TrEMBL record:
Belongs to the RRP12 family. GO terms for cellular component: nucleus. This is RRP12 HEAT domain-containing protein. It holds the Pfam family RRP12_HEAT. Residues 1-171 form the RRP12 HEAT domain. It comes from the Eukaryota. Gene3D superfamilies: Leucine-rich Repeat Variant.
């Protein structure tokens, strides 16, 4: 940009001046490369200050249209900042000269806040991605370049100014506009010195505890949600002692009467599990107890967050621990596959597959051992077919269908899947149409998953009961059965079906 602007200077007019070239701002925005923050500070910072003062003066004179045009240019100048931050070569030297101006703009000018937050995030991420090449045969873990480490230390030194500012702005922002701010806080926390981060974390935690002690008025609940969001943003960079404090503060809210606060509590627990596996290993009994206590208190709108939290916890636990948590966890997950909310059902199916993948991981590298581990989960889920309620039987069938589809390419599971199909076919005579619908779903999956040799011996058990659901009494099932018959004809020759 520096060389370009030397050839074609940027000129701003206020009254249709023929020399006006402010249109260059829009052109520059998408074509910034190999830039320096020092140039932005020396060229564009004075410009945006002049634009703002001139716009205020024009507004006082009653020239509102011209003032608005200059304010638009003011925003466009700040919109250039992310491009400079993404490729800056002089962060260590230049950042101190613009840090104060960035903080003031974040605090005083909400309209340019997104551009500045994006720029700060890109600045940190670009520096953290600068890795040194390792010698041949050395560890594959790459270290930051010395220049990047120095620059990050420089930015981290300003965390004591920026993070409290971010916290205050976060409290004032409406919930729908906080996500970018939380991401910037997360990036800043990653480069903040541990003692400073610990002090800031404890200050936020203290405010949360004070707000929790107040009667649950709507305003106080909103404050608590905002503070929990801040703790979630800080969580990945906390040390072990602070993680324990976070868990103790968040745990009571897993059973909160507020849907929003309960969601935040589950999200905080999931973030904690994702980034602090040692804590999960040490505190698994306590985590299990908390999840079990919160299960009956979980509101319908929070179940998706709960399953996301359980998924994050499951990935971190060891094999003996997994086997101890499976029975209650599978029961809850299987039943959730019948939830009305689509996202909740999807989260339950995802958790089922994560359980299978975790069991595979603990089984080792042998294909037979991995298949046996998955088969044990199939058997545990299939136990629900003997349930007394049609709802449980239907949910178990849907869970088995999803698992079978995910593992349809595992040859070692084919004999077991054929046995399972034979068992499921007996449920075609069940009175509850809810169960029959789930059986049809299972058969659809089987027809695409199992090889023809495994399906052919079961055709006499499959076709007659299916045809019994083709009467006009069951019109809602009639077309599904017809579709299945067409699928059968595509896979099996006519003699196999008629025989």
């Amino acid at each position: 940009p520096q060389n370009f602007l030397q050839l074609l200077p940027l000129k701003v007019g206020t009254s249709g001046d023929a020399q006006d070239s402010s249109w260059l701002l829009a052109v520059l925005r998408g074509h910034i490369g190999n830039a320096t923050l020092a140039f932005y500070a020396s060229y564009f910072m004075p410009m945006q200050e002049w634009l703002l003062k001139r716009a205020e003066a024009l507004g006082e004179e009653g020239r509102s249209v011209e003032a608005k045009n200059l304010l638009n240019l003011f925003e466009q100048v700040w919109a250039l900042l992310p491009g400079f931050c993404a490729c800056a070569r002089d962060v260590g030297d230049a950042f101190p000269s613009i840090a104060k101006a960035l903080g003031s703009a974040i605090n005083e000018h909400p309209q340019v806040r997104p551009a500045i937050l994006q720029g700060l995030g890109l600045l940190i991420l670009s520096l953290r991605s600068q890795k040194s090449a390792t010698p041949h045969g050395a560890s594959t873990t790459l270290a930051l370049t010395p220049e990047a480490s120095t620059a990050l230390a420089t930015i981290g030194g300003y965390a004591k100014n920026f993070l409290p500012l971010f916290f205050n702005v976060h409290q004032a922002e409406p919930p729908g506009r906080r996500r970018q701010l939380q991401e910037t806080i997360r990036n800043f926390a990653a480069i903040t010195p541990s003692p400073l981060l610990g002090n800031l974390f404890k200050a936020v935690l203290r405010k949360l505890l004070e707000a929790s002690a107040v009667t649950e008025a709507e305003q106080e609940l909103e404050t608590q949600c905002s503070l929990v969001e801040l703790l979630i943003a800080l969580c990945p960079s906390l040390d072990q002692a602070d993680v324990l404090l976070l868990w103790r503060a968040v745990r009571p809210h897993l059973g909160s009467a507020s849907t929003l606060l309960q969601k935040k509590a589950y999200k905080a627990t999931a973030t904690l599990a994702e980034h602090h596996s040692v804590f999960v290993q040490e505190k698994l009994p306590e985590l299990r107890e908390a999840m079990a206590e919160a299960a009956p208190l979980c509101q319908a709108a929070c179940k998706r967050k709960r399953f996301a939290c359980l998924q994050a916890l499951t990935v971190q636990i060891s094999e003996p621990q997994l086997m101890s948590v499976l029975p209650p966890l599978l029961g809850e997950t299987v039943l959730a596959t019948k939830e009305a909310n689509v996202k909740t059902r999807a989260a339950a199916f995802d958790l089922l597959l994560v359980l299978c993948a975790t069991a595979e991981k603990h089984a080792g590298n042998r294909a037979s051992a991995r298949a046996a581990a998955v088969q044990r989960l199939f058997v545990m889920v299939a136990a629900g077919l003997a349930g007394k309620s049609a709802h449980m039987m239907s949910a178990s069938l849907l869970a088995l269908s999803r698992m079978l589809h995910a593992y349809r390419h595992v040859a070692e599971l084919v004999p077991f899947s054929a046995q399972l199909l034979e068992t499921v076919l007996t449920l075609l005579e069940h009175r509850a149409q809810e169960v029959v619908r789930s059986v049809i779903v299972f058969i659809k999956v089987v027809l695409s998953a199992l090889p023809l040799e495994a399906i052919e011996p079961l055709l006499p058990l499959l076709v007659p009961p299916m045809l019994s659901w083709c009467s006009n009494k069951h019109s809602h099932l009639k077309y599904q059965v017809r579709y299945l018959m067409e699928r059968l004809f595509k896979r099996v020759w006519d003699e196999g079906v008629t025989g």
